[in-house]
């Protein structure tokens, strides 16, 4: 508990702890496990989309807006953490520095903590490390945690899924082509944002996204859209996401498409309204708990796969391992046989 309180006031200790998590440092395990027990209060929002679509600008604008709105009692302002995850770079490379520059104007605010993550090495890979960092930030008392990922592959999908609410950002581009569909990330969207709406082609992009969403989601009644002033059906929104019928509830989420100009803040209020509406939906439908259960299971499996791999590799010498791979390359062995051999060696068979 003291440790968690220390983090809130001691950003340097927090930054050090995150670096150790990234590096998969074993000394951190006990602390991370203790802090995990204290997490579960923060609102976690993932922002993903193609490179350059305006994720960082949107995240910075959202953070500023959130900081200007007191928490319901009206006495304090939310503490916000921003994590930019760049799976493509093993070091803090150019893209992350770019983010830092773009988010520069936030750094004067003591209520906002910004951090980039790039390296691997932690159990469960980068997604596992991100999950650990999120729970450390959560236990440290951050009210909102924003995770920015580039959204180009399965790893980014896994990282985005750590969030309770996933925002997929798209910018007007060439014709009907929707980057989010190409990258396979539209299917994880809870809210779709068409940013750079000041640019030509925003209407076509919205139409293309709308039909992509319509194709993938059957029709149901919307939840919470009117209450939160979101666009009505048929305007800039898609068909609702179907819930598992077995839960017997009639609460549906209606994925909104929100138009923004993140540079000027236009439309960002509507994104916040959608985020609040989605939180209501997650609570009312029980989907929030189901989603967390799925994410936890996925995380456990990723860590298990890592542990088993590490154990198997530790059970043989480098030379034996190389010989196994060489034999497989020469087709003297099937990859299944090589894997099984490693597995059996590690179990002492
Ligand atoms: N015209 C216009 N430009 C924007 C808008 N939002 C962001 N930009 C610009 O688009 C460029 C990329 O913005 P970022 O916020 O860095 O985009 P990103 O998606 O975080 O980029 P990566 O992290 O590199 O993938 C910057 O030059 C921004 O100033 C917008 O609403 N309209
Ligand atoms: Mg960025």
List keywords for this structure.
disordered N terminus, eight-stranded mixed β-sheet, binds magnesium ion, binds guanosine-5'-triphosphate, 13 helices, Rossmann fold, 13% strand
Strands, helices and their partners?
Layout: H1 2-9, H2 11-22, H3 28-38, E1 43-49, H4 55-67, E2 80-85, H5 94-102, E3 112-117, H6 125-139, E4 144-149, H7 154-160, E5 165-170, H8 179-182, E6 191-194, H9 202-216, E7 237-241, E8 253-259, H10 268-285, H11 287-314, H12 318-329, H13 335-346
Parallel strand pairs: 1-4, 1-5, 2-3, 2-4, 5-6, 6-8
Antiparallel strand pairs: 7-8
Helix pairs in contact: 1-2, 2-6, 3-6, 4-10, 6-7, 6-11, 11-13
The chain binds guanosine-5'-triphosphate and magnesium ion.
The site of guanosine-5'-triphosphate (GTP) has 20 residues, from α4 and α5.
Structural account:
It is a single chain. The protein is 47% helix and 13% strand. It is built from 13 helices and eight strands. Strands 3-2-4-1-5-6-8-7 form an eight-stranded mixed sheet, with helices on both faces. α8 links the parallel β5 and β6. α6 packs parallel to α7 and α6 packs across α11. The radius of gyration is 22 Å and the shape is globular. It binds guanosine-5'-triphosphate and magnesium ion (MG). Guanosine-5'-triphosphate (GTP) binds next to α4 and α5.
């Amino acid at each position: 508990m003291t440790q968690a309180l220390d983090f809130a006031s001691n950003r340097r200790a927090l930054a050090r702890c995150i670096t150790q998590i990234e590096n998969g440092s074993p000394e951190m395990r006990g602390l991370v496990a203790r802090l995990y027990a204290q997490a579960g209060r923060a609102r976690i929002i993932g922002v993903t989309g193609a490179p350059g679509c305006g994720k960082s600008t949107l995240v910075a604008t959202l953070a500023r807006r959130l900081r200007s709105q007191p928490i319901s009692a009206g006495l304090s302002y939310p503490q916000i953490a921003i994590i930019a995850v760049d799976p493509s770079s093993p070091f803090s490379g150019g893209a992350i520095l770019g983010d830092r520059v773009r988010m520069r104007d936030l750094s004067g605010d003591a209520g906002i903590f910004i951090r980039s993550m790039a390296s691997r090495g932690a159990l469960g890979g980068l997604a596992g490390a991100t999950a650990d960092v999120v729970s450390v930030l959560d236990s440290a008392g951050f009210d909102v945690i924003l995770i920015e990922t580039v959204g180009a592959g399965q790893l980014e999908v896994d990282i985005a899924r750590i969030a309770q609410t996933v925002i997929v950002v798209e910018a007007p581009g060439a014709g009907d082509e929707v980057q989010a569909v190409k990258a396979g990330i539209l299917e994880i969207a809870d809210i779709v944002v068409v940013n750079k709406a000041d640019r030509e082609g925003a209407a076509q992009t919205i139409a293309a996204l709308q039909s992509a969403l319509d194709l993938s989601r059957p029709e149901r009644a919307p939840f919470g859209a009117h209450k939160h002033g979101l666009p009505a059906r048929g305007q800039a929104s898609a068909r609702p996401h179907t819930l598992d019928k077995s839960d017997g509830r009639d609460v549906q989420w209606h994925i909104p498409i929100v138009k923004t100009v993140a540079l000027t803040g236009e439309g960002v209020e509507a994104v916040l309204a959608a985020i609040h509406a989605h939180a209501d939906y997650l609570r009312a439908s029980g989907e929030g708990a189901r989603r967390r259960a799925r994410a936890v299971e996925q995380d456990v499996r990723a860590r298990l796969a890592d542990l088993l791999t590490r154990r198997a590799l530790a059970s043989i010498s480098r030379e034996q391992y190389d010989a196994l791979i060489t034999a497989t390359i020469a087709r003297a062995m099937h990859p299944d046989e090589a894997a099984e051999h490693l597995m059996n060696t590690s179990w002492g068979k």
